[in-house]
């Protein structure tokens, strides 16, 4: 099946980012993998009055299928409206590997896509990004690209070392590609195992400031921005899980970026940890429970509660739009 995203009630990110940059907050981009996570995300954002980008990796898309994923996004819009909220909802492809993958998602009803050419040379990255932008414009779909490389693992995206974004390249890249937003590398990292305990993760805010000076008002994106909340790490371990000790990006670091020129912050790992902690808690405390609604429902509410806190403490996007009932 093919859909136009507007027929699903979805929005692209253009107006979202313009409003965010003007009012100095960041739009939450939360990854989802199933219905419960989708509901946790959209209900949290509707209740907080925050815009939201429902973010889907290629792995998540394969799991949910491209036939089901856009309909879950439509259901998210319908759920927000039923709650009395008019928040805009985007469906975004995270780390699209090539033009064919992007085309498939646009045809399926995605309103926003990312083309990740960060592992190519600068010139090749410009070429593939420009090709995607030219195709996406035919459908009024917004495009995100990436300069620099984040270390860590996220689905099929793997890199051992970070390469910070070079501010000297951003003007040329944005100008030649026509891209709508730009993901940069300034110290964040993909996955749950970002930094070892005892370290002091810091964002390179001087690089961010220089990039903002070079492309003022242009929407900047931060990937790999989970905090890896220790309360969930410890709870998962308490109930039989095995996780390597790690810490994430402190909320205080992200707050500064959100109030600056960063219009979109990606979070995936935090939601997975909250969700998993909820499931494990039910299984540990109620070992006879086998009704999926009982343990998935708890997991959904845990994830929702955490994201409501995150919206207020990090993104600053609460009450940007009409809040739900």
Topology, pairings included?
Elements lengths: L13 H10 L3 E5 L3 H14 L3 E6 H7 L4 H14 L6 E8 L2 H10 L3 E4 L6 H16 L4 E6 L4 E3 L2 E3 L7 H11 L3 E4 L20 H10 L5 E3 L7 H9 L12 H8 L3 E6 L1 H17 L6 H24 L10
Helix pairs in contact: 2-4, 2-12, 5-6, 6-7, 7-8, 9-11, 10-12, 11-12
From the structure above, extract its key features.
15% strand; globular; 12 helices; eight-stranded parallel beta barrel; alpha/beta; TIM Barrel; 325 residues; two-stranded antiparallel ribbon
In the predicted model, the low-confidence regions spanning at least 5 consecutive residues are 157-161, 190-195
In the CATH classification, which architecture applies? Alpha-Beta Barrel
Spatial ordering of strands, largest sheet: 1-2-3-4-5-8-9-10
CATH class category: Alpha Beta
Estimate the helix proportion, in percent. 40-55%
Rounded to the nearest angstrom, the radius of gyration is 19 Å
What class, by secondary structure content? alpha/beta
Enzyme class: lyase
EC number: 4.1.2.13
InterPro entries: Aldolase_TIM, Class_II_FBP_aldolase, FBA_II, Fruc_bis_ald_class-2
GO molecular function: fructose-bisphosphate aldolase activity
